[in-house]
Amino acid sequence: MIMAKQASQLRGRMKMAEPMTRHTSWRIGGPADKYYQPADLDDLVTFLASLPESESLSWIGLGSNLLVRDGGIRGTVIALSGMLNELSVIESSLVRAESGVAGAKVARFCANHHLVGAEFLAGIPGTVGGALAMNAGAFGGETWRIVESVETIDRHGHIRTRPASEYEIGYRKVRGHEGEWFVAAHLRLQPGESSSAKEEIRNLLARRGDTQPTQLPNAGSVFKNPDGDHAARLIEACGLKGFCIGKACVSDKHANFIINTGNARAADVEALIGHIRDTVKAEQDIDLEPEVRIIGEPADD
């Protein structure tokens, strides 16, 4: 329960029993018990300080790498997309991007300020916070290659700035400082030609549209690429393009994408993920590791 005095100081928006179908790119998910959208970073500090230690927290951005089970999410979801959305050049070639800013917006901002090196972010369909949490990448670029430092917050509302060197970074993996969440990144870029950077962004977005099923609800790449290979190639080699469980189907356009063809349930997607893994293991002897995050409770039925 939120203390009454602290609740009166909050400026964000609280929703109860909020359907997560509205907040995930798969358009799938049961209700969150509580769904809070902070007004800004100061409001987030106040909100976290108001919560009991036992409160379960889930953090989301655009919900583009997330499967929420049909039974929904217990506790509180904190939604940063469009809320923690400040972008600024804090010194020459160093950009501060808050966690709720979409990757494509960061890419365009940097290009407009004659800074290069962030163009690949346009190919990541998520926010800075999500990109930091998983070291998201696209078209040969990876988020943490341009991260100089990060700002984090803990459940008591304490903010810290930490250098990138304090984190262990790998392919789609980030480790370090449990109990803290990213609220901003400081990105070290290079001076460059604005027009060239903008052209590169346009090319990457066009390439994404040509190779991925962007017109249908999806969550991006479902599986990590195994060493020396591509998950999409392995899935296609098993004849799984177009394979469906319920209304969840492997995309005909890109085999590492699962699309919601109409009112798919999270249980359908999770079952399809399991079927793909089992098939690739049986036929290719390779264990595919999911890239998407699965949270929440299964439905009672």
Structural notes for this entry:
The chain has three domains: 76 residues, Uridine Diphospho-n-acetylenolpyruvylglucosamine Reductase, domain 2 (2-Layer Sandwich), CATH 3.30.43; 125 residues, Uridine Diphospho-n-acetylenolpyruvylglucosamine Reductase, domain 3 (2-Layer Sandwich); 65 residues, Uridine Diphospho-n-acetylenolpyruvylglucosamine Reductase, domain 1 (Alpha-Beta Complex), CATH 3.90.78.10. The protein contains seven helices and 20 strands. A five-stranded antiparallel β-sheet has the order 6-7-15-11-12, sandwiched between helices. Strands 1-2-5-3 form a four-stranded mixed β-sheet, with no helix packed on it. A hairpin with a 2-residue loop joins β17 and β18. α3 packs antiparallel against α5. It is globular.
Radius of gyration: 20 Å
CATH class of the largest domain: Alpha Beta
Reading the helices and strands in chain order gives HEEHEEEEEHEHEEEEEEEEHHEEEHE
| Classification by helices and strands | alpha+beta
N- and C-termini, Cα separation: 29 Å
CATH topology of the largest domain, what is it called?
Uridine Diphospho-n-acetylenolpyruvylglucosamine Reductase, domain 3
Strand order of the largest sheet: 6-7-15-11-12
Proportion in β-strands: 25-35%
Give the biggest sheet.
5 strands, antiparallel
With helices defined by DSSP (H or I, 4 residues minimum), what is the helix count?
A: 7
Low-confidence stretches: none
Summarize the structure.
By secondary structure, the chain is α+β, with helices and mostly antiparallel strands. It folds into 3 domains: 4-79, 2-Layer Sandwich (Uridine Diphospho-n-acetylenolpyruvylglucosamine Reductase, domain 2); 87-211, Uridine Diphospho-n-acetylenolpyruvylglucosamine Reductase, domain 3; 231-295, UDP-N-acetylenolpyruvoylglucosamine reductase, C-terminal domain (Uridine Diphospho-n-acetylenolpyruvylglucosamine Reductase, domain 1, Alpha-Beta Complex). The protein has helices at 4-7, 41-50, 103-112, 128-134, 194-211, 231-237, 266-284; strands at residues 13-19, 31-37, 57-60, 66-68, 73-79, 87-91, 94-98, 115-116, 137-138, 141-142, 147-154, 159-163, 168-170, 173-175, 180-188, 190-191, 244-245, 248-250, 258-260, 293-295.
